[in-house]
Amino acid sequence: MPTLRAETRPFDLLRIPILGRFLRWRHARTVLQGGMLGLAILLILDGLFGPQIAPRNLAGVLPWVHWRGFVVLALLIAGNLFCMACPFMLPRRLAKRLLPAGRPWPRPLRSKWLAVGLLFVFFWAYEAFSLWQSPWLTAWVAITYFVAAFVIDGFFRGASFCKHVCPIGQFNFMHATVSPLEVGVREPETCSDCATKDCIRGRYAGTSAVPADRPAVSSMGGGGSTSASGIATPPGPLALDSASGTVRLPEVAPPPAMASPSVGSAHDEPAGRGRLVQNGCELWLFQERKVGNVDCTFCMECVHACPHDNVGILARVPGAELWRNPWRSGVGRLTERPDLAGLAVLLTFAAFVNAFGMVRPVQAVLQALGRALGSPPEALILLAFFAGALLLLPLLAMGATSASSRHFSGGQEKLTEIGTRYAYGLVPLGLGMWSAHYLFHLLLGGLTIVPVFHAYLEDLNLAAPGAPAWGMGPMIPETWLFPVQVLLLQGGLAGSLWVLLRIARREHGDTTRAKRAFAPWALFVTVLFATGIWLLLQPMEMRGTFMVDG
After folding, report:
1. CA neighbor of 240 nearest in space, from 367, 142, 350, 107
2. Chain segment 205-255, per-residue pLDDT in tens
3. Lowest-confidence pick of 237-241, 274-278, 327-331
4. 542 pLDDT exceeds 60?
5. How far apart are CA 500 and CA 522, in angstroms?
6. Burial class, 157, CB count within 10 angstroms (exposed 0-12 / middle 13-18 / buried 19+)
7. pLDDT at position 232, please?
8. Contact indicator for 156, 287 with CB cutoff of 8 Å
9. Comparing C-alpha atoms, which of 274, 74, 270, 272 is closest to residue 179?
10. By the 8 A CB rule, do 454 and 484 touch?
11. Helix, strand or coil for residue 178?
């Protein structure tokens, strides 16, 4: 008879008979990355040498119509699956072998502010250079990604590119907080009894266990704080090595021959160990104290490294990590991370601004702004527009809402502290808007990939007889689109309202004061929701297909 514990065990994707066995296979991620790398190579080649007509080029269709749509679908249904299959990580494996890869990431950059800046530049460049319309530029964006991942992770420890730089990764990290699955431990007591901590240290040839007096490498702990640089500083018996950014176990001094290893870097293997045969977590998320999906790439390294088979892909309450505020390994407390809060706010406003850039009223706004600035070049007009829409407007809106929340609740906190606490409540609505927008393009233009591939093979003299069917495009009847979009946006609003209410209760208890603190934030997201409905009602450019308007 099954025990009560077995009956209440959460759903685990790795327990699914066929899919789970594939994902537990050590080379599963390499296979997924290999497939994505093949598509990336085709995209780059067609972007550089193919026809420079976006709807007829893989570089004009795959990234801007298909990839973005499938990314938000994956986030809604499962989790950070794109980072799991990220093709940019295959070349960096070569970099780890060819280059030293032993330097710590610069301390001033150990936060999300660099990624926030890069995201701002990308959103501006997307419109300023019409990236969706230029296969050649799109190909060079992909090449730049490969080079950046190779160089950064070739010289710095762990997965510095993923954790601190990659704009795509930050988009996935933040919105995966709303996903229904996370990589986590099955039985916490098993981790407590584990003497090796292979999930973070890695596993070495010739050893089935690592003595407990060896230094650990992670930001981990049961409480703690976050430094100004964004590094989670653990408390208790664990201590942060300020020089290397690693964590040591101070109660037992490591042997003199031991050097503090870098997670996943064979160049830093300590004396006394064999060859590194399985990485631990390269983003320094110690599974025993990991919470949620922030910074988790679903790389499965901890799954393969765990000697007890105690790590799975588990079901959880979507969005719960946004209102819960424990100290989390590698991240610290969300309420002490203004950089993560800034990332959440930027991505939420960018969801609406990016959609606004594809509707007709944007032209009137840009023309008015150009006249006010003295008719500078279009790129500068767009820079001013994005600075106002993604920097100034969010700052004013968050400041006003924080001030109202403080006033109605009778609090005394700083506005920056209030804004940091409640910023994460915007994430579900932001993902709802991104999904409504990106799925609009996918569902109306998804079948364009068929004639585009046909034309690509035709250029190689490999296509079957007959002309490409350029009229292909919609995956569902067009009349279904708006109801689907509204449903996604309503789901985002409901999620944001629930998260914001839970944050207010966390801060003030289940009291009238909590409701008063919550009210201004409820109004804020409701206004954003109404803005999203208005945007969805506007004719939108059908980028990536030969259709003009949706």
Report:
1. 107
2. 765 544 333 333 333 333 444 343 333 433 333 443 333 334 443 333 332
3. 237-241
4. yes
5. 8
6. buried
7. 40
8. no
9. 74
10. no
11. helix
Identify whether the C-beta of residue 261 lies closer than 8 Å to the C-beta of residue 248: no
Query: Which two structure tokens, joined as six digits, stand for 475?
Result: 């995956």
Is residue 517 a contact partner of residue 405, using CB atoms and an 8 Å limit? yes
CA distances from residue 211 to 194, 207, 222, 382 in whole angstroms, order as listed: 11, 10, 22, 57
Is 299:163 a contact under the CB 8 Å cutoff? no
Q: Could you tell me which of 292, 296, 293 has the C-alpha nearest to residue 283? A: 296
Instruction: Give me the mean pLDDT over the 265-277 stretch.
Output: 54
Helix, strand or coil, per DSSP, at residue 300:
coil
pLDDT tens per residue, range 144-164: 999 999 999 999 988 999 999
Place of tokens 């067009």: 478
Give, in order, the Cα–Cα distances in Å from 338 to each of 28, 335, 352.
36, 7, 22
> Which residue in this structure is represented by tokens 């300590």?
270
Buried b (16+ CB within 10 A) or exposed e, 274-293: eebebbbbbbbbbbbbbbbb
CB atoms within 10 A of CB 376: 12
pLDDT at 434 over 80: yes
Q: What is the 3-state secondary structure (H, E, C) of 426-473?
A: HHHHHHHHHHHHHHHHHHHHHHHHHHHHHHHHHHCCCCCCCCCCCCCC
Query: Is 408 in contact with 512 (CB distance < 8 Å)?
Result: no
| Six token digits for residue 499 | 């998260």
User: Residue 146's CB: how many other CB atoms inside 10 A?
Assistant: 18
**Residue 325 in contact with residue 215, Cβ under 8 Å?**
no
Is the confidence at residue 123, as pLDDT, over 80?
yes
CA dist., res. 15 & res. 273, Å (int) = 33
Computed over every residue of the chain, the mean pLDDT equals 85
Query: What are the backbone angles phi and psi of residue 101, rounded to the nearest 5°?
Result: 50, 35
512 close to 414: Cβ distance less than 8 angstroms: no
Partners of 156 in the β-ladder: 103
**Could you give the CA distance from residue 194 to residue 217 in angstroms, rounded to a whole number?**
15
